[in-house]
C-alpha cells in the first residue's frame, strides 16, 4: 500500500487540514471567552468574522474525504477508520466554532451590563479547562495516543462540576436585580463551555476508535458502568462479568 503515493499524500494533507481547523476553532473559543470581559469592543466582531475560516476548513475537509473515497478507493481498515474518524471530528470542531460565535454574541449583548466577579472567575476557569481539553484531544489524534484520549473523561469532570455549580452562583448574584439579565446570559455561556468539553471527549472517542478499531462511548448517562465500572454490583474487581454482576443468567443448551 506504500505504492499509493497520491492516496498517502491525500491522507496526510487531510490530517494537516483538520489540525489547522482545530487551531482555528481553539483561537475562536479563546477569543470569545476573553470577549466576556468587555475589554475590547472589536473582539466580538473578530470572533464572528473568524467563523468563516472555520467553516471554510469544514467544507474543504468534507470535500477531501469524499474525493478520497471516490477517487482512491481505500481498502485498508485503518484508512477507512481514519476517514470516518476525521469526518466526525470535523463536525465536532465546526460546532466548537459555532459555540464560540454564540459566546461572543452574548458577550457583545452584555458588554454594558454590571457583572459579578465570582461568576466571571468560574467562566474563566471553565474556558481554560475546555481549551486544554481541545488541545489534548487533537494531540491524541496526532500521536494516536489512546491513553490521552481516554483521559479526557477525567479532564471533563471539573468542567461539569463548574457548570453544575454555576446555577447557584447565578442565583446568588441575581439577588441584585441589576445583575439579573447578565447572570441569565452567563448561565447560557456556562452551558456552551460545558458542551465544548463534551465535544473534546467525543473527539477522543474517535481517536480510540481509529487506533483500536472498536467504538465505545467514554460516557453514557444511561449506562454509568461504562464510565464507572465500580458502580456495577460486585464491580469488575471480583472477576465477574457485567452480566453476572447484574444477576443475568447465562443460557445453557
Tell me the name of the CATH class.
Answer: Mainly Alpha
CATH superfamily caption: Phosphate transport system protein phou homolog 2, domain 2
Helix content: over 70%
Number of strands: 0
Radius of gyration: 21 Å
Low confidence ranges = 230-253
Shape designation: elongated
Percentage of residues in DSSP E strands: under 5%
Structure class: mainly alpha
Tell me the major beta sheet.
Answer: none
Integer count of domains: 1
User: N-to-C SSE series?
Assistant: HHHHHHHH
Summed up, the helix count is 8
Per the CATH scheme, the topology name is Methane Monooxygenase Hydroxylase, Chain G, domain 1
What is the mean pLDDT? Answer: 87
Task: Describe the protein's architecture and organization.
There is one protein chain. The chain has helices at 5-35, 43-72, 77-109, 117-143, 146-150, 152-173, 180-212, 242-245. It has a single domain (5-215), classed as Phosphate transport system protein phou homolog 2, domain 2 (Methane Monooxygenase Hydroxylase, Chain G, domain 1), CATH 1.20.58. Helix 1 (5-35) runs parallel beside helix 3 (77-109), helix 1 (5-35) packs antiparallel against helix 4 (117-143) and helix 6 (152-173) runs antiparallel to helix 7. With 253 residues, it is mainly α.
Q: Nutshell version of this structure?
A:
By secondary structure, the chain is an all-alpha fold.
Feature tags:
single chain, 253 residues, mainly alpha, Methane Monooxygenase Hydroxylase, Chain G, domain 1, 73% helix, elongated
Topology of helices and strands:
Elements: H1 5-35, H2 43-72, H3 77-109, H4 117-143, H5 146-150, H6 152-173, H7 180-212, H8 242-245
Helix pairs in contact: 1-2, 1-3, 1-4, 2-3, 3-7, 4-6, 4-7, 6-7
Amino acid at each position: 500500500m506504500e505504492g499509493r503515493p497520491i492516496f498517502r499524500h491525500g491522507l496526510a494533507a487531510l490530517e494537516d487540514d483538520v489540525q489547522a481547523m482545530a487551531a482555528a476553532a481553539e483561537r475562536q473559543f479563546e477569543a470569545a471567552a476573553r470577549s466576556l470581559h468587555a475589554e475590547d469592543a472589536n473582539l466580538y466582531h473578530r470572533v464572528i468574522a473568524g467563523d468563516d475560516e472555520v467553516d471554510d476548513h469544514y467544507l474543504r475537509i468534507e470535500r477531501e474525504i469524499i474525493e478520497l473515497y471516490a477517487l482512491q478507493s481505500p481498502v485498508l481498515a485503518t484508512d477507512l477508520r481514519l476517514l470516518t474518524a476525521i469526518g466526525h471530528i470535523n463536525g465536532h470542531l465546526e460546532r466548537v466554532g459555532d459555540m464560540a460565535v454564540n459566546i461572543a454574541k452574548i458577550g457583545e449583548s452584555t458588554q454594558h451590563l454590571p457583572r459579578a466577579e465570582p461568576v466571571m472567575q468560574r467562566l474563566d476557569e471553565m474556558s481554560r479547562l475546555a481549551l486544554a481539553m481541545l488541545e489534548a484531544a487533537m494531540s491524541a489524534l496526532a500521536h494516536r495516543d489512546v491513553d490521552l484520549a481516554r483521559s479526557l473523561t477525567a479532564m471533563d469532570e471539573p468542567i461539569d462540576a463548574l457548570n453544575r455549580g454555576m446555577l447557584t452562583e447565578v442565583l446568588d448574584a441575581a439577588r441584585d436585580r441589576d445583575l439579573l439579565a447578565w447572570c441569565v446570559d452567563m448561565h447560557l455561556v456556562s452551558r456552551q463551555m460545558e458542551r465544548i468539553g463534551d465535544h473534546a471527549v467525543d473527539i477522543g472517542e474517535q481517536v480510540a476508535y481509529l487506533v483500536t478499531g472498536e467504538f465505545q462511548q467514554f460516557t453514557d448517562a444511561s449506562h454509568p458502568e461504562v464510565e464507572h465500572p465500580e458502580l456495577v454490583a460486585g464491580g469488575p474487581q471480583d472477576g465477574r462479568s457485567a452480566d453476572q454482576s447484574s444477576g443475568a443468567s447465562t443460557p445453557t443448551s
